[in-house]
Each structure stands twice: as C-alpha cells, then as structure tokens.
Specification:
With 226 residues, the chain is an all-alpha fold. It folds into 2 domains: 112 residues, Rna Polymerase Sigma Factor, Chain: A (Orthogonal Bundle), CATH 1.10.1740.10; 98 residues, Arc Repressor Mutant, subunit A (Orthogonal Bundle), CATH 1.10.10. The longest helix has 23 residues. It is globular and about 55 Å long.
C-alpha cells in the first residue's frame, strides 16, 4: 500500500489503545532507531509509520489522558498529534530523539487545548474528572471499587497526579510515561533545564505528601529528583 492511501485509510480512524489499565506509571525505553523509522516514513515508507504508531500509541495516549483529564479530549488530541506528524513529515529532520519530537507536538496540542477550553477545565472537579477517566480506562470487572487494595492505591496515585498544577503534572508524566531525561523534557516544554527540574521535583514532593497515608510496602513508590 502506498503512503497516501495508507494515510487516507487510517488517519480518520487511528485506533486508540484498546485497554489502559490503572497501574503504576512506568517508563518505556525509546530507541534512537525511531528517528530512522521517521526518516523512512518521510521518504515514503508507510510500514515505518505503522511501526512508530504501534510503539508510541500507548504512552502517547496515557500522557494525553492524564494530562488533560478528559477521555474525549485525549482521543481528539491523540488524533491531532498524529495528523500533525503526517502533515509535516516532509520537513522532518532528526535534531533530537524521535520521542522528543513527538511529545513536543503533543505538548503544543495540549497547550492549545487548555487555551481553548479553560472554562471547561475549571468546571471539572478533580474527583469527578478522575472518576470519569478511570471509567473510560477500565473494564467493569477491574473498576477501582470492584477490586482489592492495590487498585485503590493506583486510583489514589492517578487522582494525585490529576490534582497537580498543569506544568508539574506534565513534567511528571513526560518523565514517568516516556523515560525522557530532564534536558529532553525542558526541550519539549520550551523551558530552561532548571525550570523543568524544579517542576519535576515539586511534583514528586506533592505526590509523596498526597500518598503518605498509604505508604506501606505494597504502595506505589516514587523516585526523587535532586
């Protein structure tokens, strides 16, 4: 299948990850080989795009979902990010890791969303929006009120992440969902390295305070950042 027919067939209906479970956020290993895949796609290799999409759809959707705290908005932004990547592929140059390139697009799309929908975001109470987020993520038999203590801990973590200020939440999600380092997070969010480091440090401190009543051997453990 040629690249244009591939895009025409898949772009309007890019599938979201089928199952997003309420688990402890974990990072993924993103290889620089992905930049090579993007160069191949830029030059017309549709299979290279399929490989990139398969690798990044999960962490990208989780980042958007937990950042904007709306399953509907996350789905729209998910499509928007990939649409932008496809539309601008001819100008792609590997000046950084592909993950940095992709999540910089996602960051800009999220910023545009917050600017468009400030009133909506303020109207959604944290607990209400987090409840609907979990409903969208989890099958009926895995809902936090149907499972044991571990799921309750995961629910508490997601709620604590949702309650963080926007900039701190994004820094934490970029680190935990993608494994990107501080320099890459700073580049994605267009801030100095010290600012990115400070946002991540404050985010972790606030999460630790929020989860302190649950800090038992099985509770989620958060890394600290100097």
């Amino acid at each position: 299948m040629d690249p244009k027919s591939f895009e025409n067939n898949c772009l309007p209906l890019l599938p979201l990850p089928l199952k997003i479970t309420p688990r402890m956020l974990r990072s993924m290993d993103f290889s620089d080989d992905d930049a090579g895949l993007m160069l191949r796609y830029r030059d017309g290799d549709a299979a290279a795009f399929a490989a990139l999409y398969a690798h990044y759809k999960g962490p990208l959707y989780r980042y958007l979902l937990r950042h904007v705290r709306s399953a509907c908005a996350a789905a729209d932004l998910f499509q928007e990010v990939w649409s932008h990547l496809i539309a601008t592929r001819a100008r792609y140059e590997p000046r950084a890791k592909f993950a940095t390139f992709l999540f910089h697009i996602a960051h800009n799309c999220a910023i545009d969303f917050f600017r468009r929908d400030l009133n909506l975001r303020r109207a959604l109470p944290v607990h209400e929006s987090e409840s609907s987020l979990l409903e969208a993520e989890v099958p009926e038999h895995q809902r936090p009120d149907r499972v044991a203590e571990f799921a309750e801990q995961q629910s508490a973590l997601l709620a604590a992440v949702a309650a963080l200020p926007q900039e701190q939440r994004e820094a934490f999600l970029l680190r935990e969902e993608t494994g990107l380092n501080i320099e890459e997070i700073a580049r994605i969010t267009d801030v100095p390295i010290e600012t990115a480091k400070s946002r991540l440090r404050y985010a972790v401190r606030k999460l630790q305070c929020s989860l302190r009543p649950m800090q038992e051997p099985e509770a989620p453990r958060l890394r600290t950042y100097a």
